[in-house]
């Protein structure tokens, strides 16, 4: 009898161990999720998200994440609708996290969110023409307190300038070390922040009144240093791609970003930036185009054709479209005046945008 009991116990132990080992080695369920990765949607269009799993899987819950942020949860595989009205444009990751029996399993996909509609097409009206220094390879352009503030580029010739609007004469300047290629600039209180292009890339902090260089900080946001502007709360900068970064106004570190898209796809090479009445204005490098951009989503709202502002037929020998491109947007907040120019252009134009 004793031997039978021992034998029975041994058999039960083996069976239990086998069940336990089988559970440990049980393969994960095969999950799938729709929509198909890379599917394009227009902003405002609902995205139907649905997870599929084997019939023997009994989920405790399914949590849905958009770019790692939870937006919904369910108890079953029924489809849900993702609203896109306020979601920033560009690639967006969708993950379903299935919880069952104390374990979790993920399945992911992605979509590309485009602007909900085509940009409105605008042209311009020239209201006044001012002189502009033809040695200034314009990268950043600002207007404040009756003066233009201009940051310029090119190796060995990069400067920060304070300029008389009416005459185009330089009142104050700070020359950069010849190793730097100057880029965009922005005014924050009594400071002027200025970027450099690359190799090396730094952020300069100047005293706005004296033009004395106060700080030189390492800077590695994005691919390259390009445009810069300030909305009163945060800085915006771009980097040669379609991305516009948000920077903290105190330490100039990145806090987020938007990607610039119209209804067809990304708009690359957004360049000199200006914040105007709740929108970002941007030159598109090597084009005669200015964009008005939603600073929350990256959607191109309006597109301005500037191709005849300084026609090629009127340019003297030595000027070409590749080198002396349209670049420079400055906004007079108090006077509601908008100024534009180009690299080494002889004129700065006060313009008004007009819908076609």
Kindly list the characteristics that best describe this protein.
mainly beta, 356 residues, eight-stranded mixed beta sheet, elongated
Characterize the structure shown.
- The protein contains one helix and 28 strands.
- It has about 350 residues and is mainly beta.
- The strands form six sheets. It has an eight-stranded mixed beta sheet with strand order 22-23-24-25-9-28-27-26, with no helix packed on it. A five-stranded mixed beta sheet has the order 2-8-7-4-5, with no helix packed on it.
- A hairpin with a 2-residue loop joins strand 10 (about 140-145) and strand 11.
- The radius of gyration is 29 Å and the shape is elongated.
- The N and C termini lie far apart (about 100 Å).
- The model is unreliable at about 1-25 (pLDDT under 50).
Instruction: Estimate the mean pLDDT confidence.
Output: 92
Rounded to the nearest angstrom, the distance between the terminal CA atoms is 101 Å
Q: Helical element count? A: 1
* Oligomeric status: single chain
Number of strands: 28
Shape: elongated
Strand percentage: over 45%
């Amino acid at each position: 009898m004793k031997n039978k009991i021992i034998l029975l116990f041994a058999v039960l132990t083996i069976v239990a161990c086998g069940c336990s080992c089988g559970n440990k080695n049980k393969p994960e369920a095969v999950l799938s999720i729709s929509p198909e990765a890379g599917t394009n949607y227009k902003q405002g269009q609902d995205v139907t998200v649905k997870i599929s799993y084997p019939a023997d899987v009994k989920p405790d819950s399914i949590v849905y994440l958009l770019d790692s942020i939870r937006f919904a949860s369910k108890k079953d595989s029924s489809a849900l609708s993702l609203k896109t009205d306020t979601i920033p444009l560009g690639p967006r990751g969708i993950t379903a996290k299935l919880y069952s029996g104390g374990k979790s399993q993920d399945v992911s996909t992605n979509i590309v969110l485009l602007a909900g509609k085509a940009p409105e097409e605008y042209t311009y009206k020239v209201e006044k023409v001012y002189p502009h220094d033809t040695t200034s390879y314009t990268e950043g352009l600002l207007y404040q307190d009756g003066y233009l503030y201009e940051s310029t580029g090119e190796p060995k010739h990069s400067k920060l300038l304070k300029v008389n609007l009416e005459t185009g004469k330089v009142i104050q300047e700070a020359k950069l070390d010849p190793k730097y290629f100057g880029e965009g600039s922005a005014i924050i209180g009594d400071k002027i922040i200025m970027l450099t292009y690359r190799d090396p890339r730094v952020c300069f902090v100047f005293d706005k009144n004296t033009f004395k260089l106060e700080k030189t900080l390492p800077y590695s946001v994005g691919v390259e240093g390009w445009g810069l502007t300030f909305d009163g709360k945060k800085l915006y900068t771009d980097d040669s791609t379609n991305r516009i970064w948000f920077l903290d106004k105190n330490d100039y570190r990145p806090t987020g970003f938007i990607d610039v898209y119209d209804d067809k796809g990304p708009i690359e090479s957004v360049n000199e930036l200006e914040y105007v009445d709740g929108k970002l204005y941007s030159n598109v490098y090597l084009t005669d185009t200015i964009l008005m951009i939603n600073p929350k989503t990256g959607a191109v709202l309006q597109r301005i054709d500037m191709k005849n502002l300084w026609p090629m037929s009127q340019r003297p020998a030595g000027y070409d479209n590749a080198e002396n491109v349209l670049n420079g947007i400055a906004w007079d907040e108090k006077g509601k005046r908008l100024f534009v120019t180009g690299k080494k252009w002889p004129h700065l134009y006060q313009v008004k945008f007009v819908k076609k």
